[in-house]
Design brief:
Elements lengths: L9 H20 L2 H10 L5 H20 L2 H16 L2 H24 L1 H12 L3 H14 L3 H16 L3 H25 L4 H26 L9 H4 L2 H34 L2 H38 L2 H28 L1 H8 L3 H33 L4 H25 L1 H20 L2 H16 L1
Helix pairs in contact: 1-9, 1-13, 2-3, 2-9, 2-10, 2-13, 3-7, 3-12, 3-13, 4-5, 4-8, 4-12, 4-13, 5-8, 7-10, 8-9, 8-10, 9-10, 12-13, 12-17, 12-18, 13-14, 13-16, 14-16, 15-16, 16-18, 17-18
Length: about 450
């Protein structure tokens, strides 16, 4: 099964793109829930409508991104189980995180009031923005168990290379969300509560359909599965260690995202709305690059499961090539198409003008962040999350230093400068750990030959 790594031919590119392109489409659909809600609210005459939804979406991004390890680690573990051809491990790679997802989802619903109280106290939105954000939050929080279940199912399907099914579920959720939001807002005259209800219904429907689709694959079997297998201490500890490190990584990321919103609130509704639009563009770019990175996760996971060093090495080269090319195209697009793209989000002149002022930072983002995102996919495919955690902590430290030094003199430009420094740090610091991972895979492959 192993092959030469001296060169990469068109077949290698074709195989990689055959997985990466559907993953890109799947990943790009993820931020479209927030994009659609922001764009629909951008049709209202006051910036507060965008700001209100932006504040509420920020709270949910914080909650759900902190728990995003459920999707990422599930991809790595299921890809490795698939590479080994271990049917029981494939089942456990779905069932274990699903139990955790449902438990955490119910917990978020039960704790919705204290979460809302703390979040609003920290963000301190204005009266109008706060009222709109509260209406959105009170409805969408009930979707927490369904969102986290979707994370696990999506991660498992990706690890199993069932990309078409994963893509179908993501597209279904976004199409339902957009159609329902248009119906409730334009058809029935609702505002923030309408887009929240649309998102909730889309999340619930997608989770139910996902369960049915996975059952019909006839790959997962609970027959003979005992509590001792499910809660095996060693396997469970390994999974929780990876999840812990990815949780810390996401906490660092969300600290940065939240501070962009906090500073936007300080600078007024117009800057808050402009930053919200630019962050949605950033999420689209990050998820485009994340789709390529997730292809790396699947192939690296399979390489680890098969103990296939050549496949591992080729995957690194392919993710670097296609990630770099995509980043360059995104940077050029943001540089030359910034104003038309911003117009898709809002019709408010002052918000468009403010967003245009800070658009160059978004154009720089993909060039600084793409390698860190690709490496993130490689390390998670190997279920080696410690370096990911450490690199994010170092990047966060650099971010705070830049924020402290830049904001007093540069204002909101200083906020975006610190964001770019953080993105560059994610690439540089994680790169330092790559030689160590290479050696680990080399040892694993050598042990097979012996």
């Amino acid at each position: 099964m192993q092959q030469s790594i001296t060169s990469i031919n068109w077949q290698d590119h074709k195989k990689f793109l055959g997985l990466a392109i559907p993953l890109i489409i799947s990943y790009i659909s993820t931020p479209l829930l927030g994009v659609a809600d922001t764009a629909i609210m951008g049709r209202f005459p006051q910036a507060a409508y965008i700001g209100g939804v932006a504040v509420a979406v920020l709270i949910f991004n914080t909650l759900y991104w902190l728990l995003g390890f459920l999707r990422v680690s599930t991809s790595g573990f299921s890809a490795q189980a698939c590479g080994r051809g271990d049917k029981q491990a494939i089942t456990l790679a779905l069932v274990r995180p699903m139990l955790i997802a449902l438990l955490l989802g119910v917990l978020l619903v039960l704790l919705q009031w204290p979460i809302k109280t703390v979040a609003f106290a920290l963000l301190s939105p204005g009266e109008t923005v706060g009222a709109l954000a509260g209406a959105y939050y009170d409805i969408r929080i009930w979707g927490a168990p369904f969102v986290l279940a979707n994370y696990v199912m999506n991660g498992w399907l990706l690890g199993m290379a069932k990309v078409k099914l994963s893509l179908f579920l993501q597209v279904l959720m976004n199409v339902l969300n957009i159609l329902l939001a248009l119906l409730l807002v334009i058809g029935f005259g609702l505002d923030a509560d309408g887009v929240a209800a649309a998102t909730l219904l889309a999340e619930m429907a997608t989770a139910c359909i996902g369960f049915v689709l996975i059952r019909n694959l006839h790959v997962v079997s609970l027959d003979g599965l005992t509590p001792a297998m499910l809660f095996d201490p060693d396997a469970f500890l390994t999974m929780m260690k990876v999840n812990r490190d990815l949780f810390i990584r996401t906490a660092c990321l969300l600290t940065v995202y939240n501070l962009v919103a906090v500073y936007g609130i300080r600078y007024g509704d117009t800057v808050l709305a402009a930053n919200a639009v630019l962050m949605q563009l950033h999420f689209v770019m990050a998820n485009l690059l994340g789709g390529i990175a997730n292809a790396g996760t699947v192939f690296v996971g399979q390489a680890i499961g098969e103990k296939n060093r050549p496949l591992y090495r080729k995957t690194i080269t392919l993710t670097a090539f296609w990630g770099g090319l995509t980043a360059a195209l995104l940077a050029l697009s943001a540089s030359f198409l910034g104003d038309p793209v911003i117009r898709l989000f809002t019709t408010i002149p002052e918000v468009r003008q403010a967003a245009q002022q800070y658009m160059p930072w978004i154009a720089v983002f993909p060039l600084t962040a793409f390698w860190g995102l690709q490496l993130y996919g490689i390390f998670t495919g190997a279920t080696t999350a410690g370096p990911v955690r450490n690199s994010m902590l170092y990047s966060l430290a650099a971010y705070f230093i830049c924020l402290w030094a830049g904001v007093p003199g540069l204002g909101n430009h200083g906020v975006w400068l610190a964001f770019i420094v953080f993105s560059l740090g994610r690439s540089l610091f994680l790169w330092l750990y790559l030689p160590g991972l290479n050696k680990s895979v080399d040892r694993l492959s050598a042990a097979v030959k012996l």
